Amino acid sequence: MLPKDPNANRLCDATMIKAFAFIIASVVIVVLVGLVGKYHKNHVSVPPKPLTIDEVRLSIGEQLIANLKGENIRDNLHLITSDPHVAGTENNKRVGEKILNLWKKNGLEDVHFVDYNVLLSYPDYENPNHVSILDPGRRVLYQSNGTSPIIFPKEQGSPHAGVQWVAYSSPGEVEGDIVYCHYGREEDFERLKKLGIER
């Protein structure tokens, strides 16, 4: 009989421990894989359905509406309309500067002015245009005073705010019969023409 080698027993014990640890680790891995598989089976991840163009537009619209604030609209309108600002005047330049500063304050970049020339007429503030209604004998039945009535003095109290004029029309006198032409669209004038009423 051969004498027992004490190192052989230790080697055998170490091998057994490694084998046992490997078996335990394998069982744990199998159980974990099974649990993950079961979880995914019960919680199937469905990829999101791509949005249609209409859905994207609706989403953008909803986000814009959610960010609108009535008080901001009121304040901005007051900022822009507190004084009359006919194109090409100093008041118009001041309103442009207010808008420029507001846009910059709200994070817009490269906000700047572009100068260009336009052909406009301007009102005669001291002698506003007026409309007269005459009878066949040319007697004045009604004459406007050339200004719009002030309904809200606090909002419409600036000098010359209510003066009436047509910016793209030269000054002068025009006479004619009063003709109702609905909205003044091209189709409205076509209808008048068909009815034998010339402009």
UniProtKB/TrEMBL annotation:
Keywords: Membrane, Transmembrane, Transmembrane helix. InterPro entries: PA_dom_sf, Peptidase_M28B. GO terms for molecular function: carboxypeptidase activity. Gene3D superfamilies: 3.50.30.30, Zn peptidases. SUPFAM superfamilies: PA domain, Zn-dependent exopeptidases. The chain crosses the membrane at residues 20-39. This is Uncharacterized protein. It comes from Panagrolaimus davidi.
